[in-house]
Structure formats: C-alpha cells, structure tokens
Amino acid sequence: MSVTSNCVALPCGCFQRPLRFAFFSAETRHLNRGDRREVPQRALRRAFGPRLLAALISFLAPCILLGPFACQAGAQVTFERLLNSAKEPQNWLTYSGDYAGRRFSPLDQINPGNARTLVAKWVYQTAGTGKLETTPLVVDGVLYATGQDDRAFALDGRTGRPIWLYQRQLPSDIRPCCGRVNRGFAILGDKVVFGTLDAHLIALDAKTGSVIWDVAAADYKLGYSFTAAPLAVKNLIVLGVSGGEYGVRGFIDAYDATTGERKWRFNTVPGPGEPGHDTWEGDSWKVGGAPAWNTGTYDPSTNQLFWPTGNPAPSNRGEGRAGDNLYSNSLLALNADTGKLNWYFQYTKHDEHDWDATQVPVMIDTGSKHLIVQANRNGFFYVIDRANGKLLSANAYGKITWSDGKDAEGRPVANQGAKPTLEGHTVCPGALGVTNWMAPTYDPQTGLFYVTAREQCDIFSTAPQPYEAGHAYYGSAYFPSDKAEPYWGALRAIDPATGQIKWEFRHPSPSWSGALSTAGGVVFTGDAEGNFIALDAQSGKALWHFEMGGEVYASPMAFAVDGKQYVAIAAGSAVYSFGLP
Amino acid sequence: MPANGTNGQGVGMTDQEIWELITYIRSVEVKAPAKPIGDATHGKELFYGDANCSLCHMISGKGGRLGPELTSVGGNRTVEAILDSVRNPSRRLAWGLTEPTKEFAQEYETVTVVTVNGKEIKGVILNEDHFSVQMMDTNEQIYLLEKDKLRSFQKSRESMMPKYDAAVLNDKDLGDVVAYLINVGGK
Question: Which residues, including other chains, have CB under 8 Å from residue B81's CB and lie 6 or more apart?
Fold first, then answer.
C-alpha cells in the first residue's frame, strides 16, 4: 500500500512529519525509529545531490516550519474524505461506514462464489471481560476500536498486532445500565474520539493513543453515560447521551473537534417555553429520559443530521408523564451547524413498553424519492420522506401484539390491551424489541434492507416508582412469559418499497449481531451461538460460517489493506478478522 | 433502555456482578425445610428403584445422563418447583431458555433426527446452532451432526421425561423422593 502518497503530493513539510504509520510501508517495516527519520533525507540526497538539496531546503524553509500543519491537513481524515468515503472503499471511516448509515462496503473481492473459502486472518483479544459492541474504524491500514470499560486500541489491519492501547481510569460508581460497553470511535483529522461511561468525550491522538482533550458532558452520578460511537461532521463531533434507565434528561451534543469546546446541545426533552414542553405532565420533563444512545446519520445536501432518540422515563410507566412525551422515541432532523430542529417524527407516542427508537436511521434514494428508513424496536419498518419527516409507510417485520391500529398519519398506535399492568401480561415483541441497537444494513445493489429480528414475547408489568437521583427508574419489571413461544431469531431481508420480507435466515436463539452488506453480493452477520456467517445477499443462503467461541454483540465492517479485503467483527472479548486465503 | 442481553435485570451491574450476586443468594439459602416433607430413605430407594428416576438423572456420580444432574437441586429449588418439575416436566421446557439462564447451555429439548442412511435417533439436545446439533440418545450415545446432512430434524418442547402423575407416583412417594433430593442437596 502507498503509505505517504497523500503527503508527498503536498508542496511542503511532508518529509518532516509523515502522519501515517511509516512502518506500514513494505520498505520501512523493519526499520527502527531512527532509521525511519533518515530515510527521506537519504532519498533526497540521492535525488538532488547535496548542493541542490541545500537550495531546496532554503527555498522550502517556511514550508518546513509549517510542515506539520500542512501535512496534517493533507494526510488526515478530513471532512472531505468522510463525505466521499465511497471513493476509498479500503477504509471504514464512520460507525456505519458512510453518512447514509447503510453499513455497505463497496469492496467486492469476497463473493458468493468464493465465500466458502474464507479463513480467519487474525484475532485480537482485548484482555477485558464482558461483551464487545464496537464497530472498528479502519484508516489506511490501521484499525481503531473501543472495548470494555472504555479501553481503546489501534491495530495493524493486516496482522491484528497492537500499535497502542488506551485505558480510561473510570470512577468506581459509574452507572452503565447494560454492560460496560462502547460502540466505537469517530475519526477526524488526526484524532479518534469516543464517549465514556462517565459521560466524558475524549479525543485521542490517532498515532499514539494519548489524550488530546477530555471534556465532561454531564454528571455520571445522575446516570448519564456515553456508549454510542460519535459522528464527525465538518469540524464537529456529534454524540448523543445514554441513561434513559436513570431518568436523565436526554441530549445530543456537538463539540469542536480541535478544542473539545461544546458548540451546541439539543435537549431531547424540551424545557419550559420550548415547543413540545407541554407534552409532559408537571415536572416529569426534568427526568424524562429520551436519550440518544446510538449513532445518527448525516445528509450533506441539506446539512441535516438525522438522530434517533430513546424511551421516555420511567420506561414502562406512563402515569405521571401524561402526554406524547416529545421528543422521546423520535427521529430528529437537526441543522448540523446549530443543532436547531428542522422537523421530527415520533415513532411511538407516550411509550410504556420501552420502544427505544434509537436504531440507525438509514438514508435511501430511489429515483426522485429521498427516504429515511428505520427498522424500529417496536417491530415496525418505517419509511419517511427525508424532506419533511412525513410518514410514508409502517409495516410489521416481526411478531406484534402491542398495536393493531394506526392513527391518521399512518403511525402504529398502542392498543389498550397491551398497556402494562400491576399483575403483568404478555406482549410481543418482548422487552428487548424485535430489534435493538445492532446495526442494520442497506445494499443498494439488491435494494434490500437487512436487519436482525428477535422473536420473543415478555410479560410487562408496571408499578409506581419515585425518582431518586442516580438510581434505576423503570417503573416496571418484565419477565419471560410461559405463554409465549420459545425465543428465536432471524436475519431478515426487507424490500423497503413494500415492507415485505424477501427472505430470512433463522437463528436457533435471538441474535445481538448487526449486519453488513458488501458489493460482492455477500451479507455478513453473527449469532448468539458464536458464529460469523456469510449469506448470499439475494437469496439468504448460507455460504460460510466460522465459530468464534463467543457470543456476538457487535456489527461487522469491511476494509482492505494491500489490496486484500477483510471483514471484521467482535465476538466474546475479541475482535476477529477474516479474508480469502 | 439499550438492553444488555441479560433481560435488563441488574441495572448498573456487570454480568459478572449479577452472577456473583446470584451465587451469594444461593449460598445463603436455607438448605432444607424446617420440617421434612417425607421419608428420605424411602425416597432414595424409589429414586434408584421403582420410580426409575436414576435411569436418566444422576446424583453424586450415580445415575443416568439423559436428564439434568440433580445433586444440588434440593438446595436451590423450592419444594413446589421440584414437585412441579416431576408432575409437569414439559412446563419449564416450554418457556425456552431466557437470556439470563443461558449460562446453562443445555435446555434438554427433545429432538428427533433421521440421518442420511434413514436411521432415526431421538434424544435431548446438548447444544445447537444454525448449522449443527450435538445430541444424546436414550442409550447415552452422543451424536455430533451437521444439519444439512440430515434427512429430517425435528425439535419438540415436549420433554422426554414422562409425566409422573399420581397414578405413576402417588403424593406420598413423591414427597419421599423430594425429601431425598433436599436431604442430598442441602448438604
């Protein structure tokens, strides 16, 4: 691979401080640090001779002084590169692989004809305990990922050998609801940025893993935390908060990537005087939840962020928070520069089933239609007009008993029979939804949307629960239902045009794996039994599988180094990479 | 709520901490009821004799392997739960494993397969994924099978354990068997 190609194209400074990892060059791989520094000078001397070199140096002196800046600007992951991620299919630059949220790789080496020959290339053990939910980023051969307890690491994409490791020193009294997890980095410039379980946003030097800036976004003792991967847009790092289980007041933040200064905050629960405030009863808005604990998408043509939000708090008790509870369980269209709300669509009004709507909203363009689609936790697949937030269709893609009717806009509404009671009763889907945070994928070649579905029903009950700062605030409990069928799962291929399921690949038990589609016509996913699975994107036929020895709680991605395609996914406490022999 | 794959229970706790808590709660459980509910000695005779429990269940290394090992069951289940498991062996199986209980890989689902040679095998599932199944038949023979090489693969939530109604095992004898289980499990 070309290591310094972006650098040498610049007028000055690049030899001074090549930003990329020089040891990835085949030529310099075995050189020590001192030798690497010598290489450009020796090469220059050979090229120009000593006298000419002296003249060149004096001509370029100002450049050399400014060199680091010039080189950084050229060699780094700029906003331009993020905008044009499809032009560098070897890289995976954002959580979902592109701004549209498609989790589609343009790489096509692995196809239905050769997928059966896939082999494991390397495994990286994090040495942490607990599950991994991360999606790695890959930039120019280097893989960046986050792990349990806010550790983070950079690996050689070809070998899995570590380059650096970062470990956050977390307070002992953090309040992660659902595992000490993190879903990944955003990369911008020479920084990789992630949110922490103690509600900080941290920028690390992509070359060394050292902290460049560290800002506190909220008080973790009140239940605020970050688990989602941020999204880099222009010079901003955008991230939503977690903590809907603790009665936080949700928000989406944008920070200056250079300094860490907060540029805007959108409160997902409107305060007094703000539109939507009257959808909350009394003071319930103060602890109304509506966190934004997954990564949104970005439409450069309108400069809009599309960010989904989670449940109102307490999640399973509506008494005390009468009203629609805006902007819980909503899709928000925000001006990326200011955080100003352009429009919203609320998937589930006044939710009492924990129907978090935080699933990735995926942008799809078909002809003149500019759509945004979401396979929602509540079991419906929504198609929305991206221009104005108008609902175009909502079709069930899993077993549903909570809703049997729609309102005038076509939005599914809860039936009275599904309302949680003190004694509890069975509702489908169960408390974890038909899907959850695991990433879906849209393949522009097949035109199909692939999503992990969970077939599980649960008993929902509710009980009064006073708010106590920093403590769990569910107002409920839920249990396995002995009236329900045994749990199972599937990866489903949905035709967005009709909402019809074209095929499904069944799992014996519900999976927590996301999915990846690729230009080679292969869809990848994982299962609770530890398999990584390659499927024919057209038919859903299994092409290959590999037992990784640990349950999958992550979403796959693809990259290439030295012209070879890899597919990576986390399972158990490790990151796995696969490729053709 | 993001949900952590452990049914959302144990807010703010890691999976490991949840299991440590469960282990602690089990350790402080009352190991045996204040009043014995039957004759444990007779219960042992029944377990290894006329009631045929030991054909499929093992206690302290003695007995069969087709059903769950029962040495400690008397120390961590209520009397009512044990009685119900004997009278209605399929009930718990019908629920399916919930995610918190997936730590115990085996669910004792009943499975019937027909191999490519036409051989029918019935038994319990030891482990299964989309592609393969590991099962034990009634002779405790273990089979490691690839599903796509089978003629048929049929799972059932009807337990292989026969339903022990009062005609098979009367209330007194059942009480004696439970007393034996508690006697062993409480130690």
Answer: none
Characterize A71-96 residue by residue with b for buried, 16 or more Cβ atoms within 10 angstroms of its Cβ, and e for exposed: bbebbbbbbebbbebeebbbbbbbbb
pLDDT tens digits for range A413-433: 999 999 999 888 899 999 999
What per-residue confidence (pLDDT) applies to B7?
Answer: 38
**Confidence at residue B28, expressed as pLDDT on a 0 to 100 scale:** 57
Q: Which residues of A touch B7 (CB under 8 A)?
A: 431-432, 478, 480
pLDDT band at B6 (very low <50, low <70, confident <90, very high): very low
Ranges under pLDDT 70 in chain A: 1-75, 482-484
Residues on chain A touching B147 (C-beta within 8 angstroms): none
Whether residues B16 and A531 touch (CB distance < 8 A) is answered with no
| pTM of the complete model | 0.85
- pLDDT band at residue B77, thresholds of 50, 70 and 90? confident
Q: What is the pLDDT of residues A13-60, one digit of tens each?
A: 233 333 344 433 333 233 333 333 333 444 444 444 555 544 444 444
CB contact under 8 A, B5 and A431: no
Cβ separation B1–A244 shorter than 8 A:
yes
Other beta carbons within 10 angstroms of residue A475's beta carbon come to: 24
Chain B residues closer than 8 Å to A129 by CB: 14, 16
In this complex, do B94 and A293 lie within 8 Å of one another by their Cβ atoms?
no
Q: Which of A257, A254, A245 is nearest to A288 (CA)?
A: A245
Q: Could you tell me if B128 lies within 8 Å of chain A, comparing CB atoms?
A: yes
CB B61 within 8 A of CB B173: no
A354, A458, A527, A536: the catalytic one is A354
pLDDT value for A60 = 45
Q: Is A351 a catalytic residue?
A: no
- Look-up of token digits 């920070």: A255
Q: Looking at the complex, does the CB of residue B5 fall below 8 Å from at least one CB of chain A?
A: yes
**Of 2.140.10.10, 3.10.450.50, 2.40.70.10, 1.10.10.10, which CATH number belongs to A104-579?**
2.140.10.10
Residue A401, pLDDT score: 96
CA A335/CA B60 separation, integer angstroms? 68
pLDDT of residue A480: 72
What stretch of H or E contains B177?
A: helix B171-185
With contact defined as beta carbons under 8 Å apart, do A251 and A271 qualify? no
Residues of B in contact with A242 (CB under 8 A): 2
Asked if this assembly's ipTM is beyond 0.85, the reply is no
Give the gap in angstroms from C-alpha A5 to the nearest C-alpha of chain B: 42
Instruction: Tell me the count of A-B CB pairs closer than 8 A.
Output: 110
Mean pLDDT throughout B17-41? 67
Q: Where in chain A is the domain with CATH 2.140.10.10?
A: 104-579
State the nearest Cα–Cα gap between B129 and chain A, in angstroms. 6
Q: Cβ separation of A179 and B98 shorter than 8 Å?
A: no
Are A506 and A489 in contact by the 8 Å Cβ rule? The answer is yes
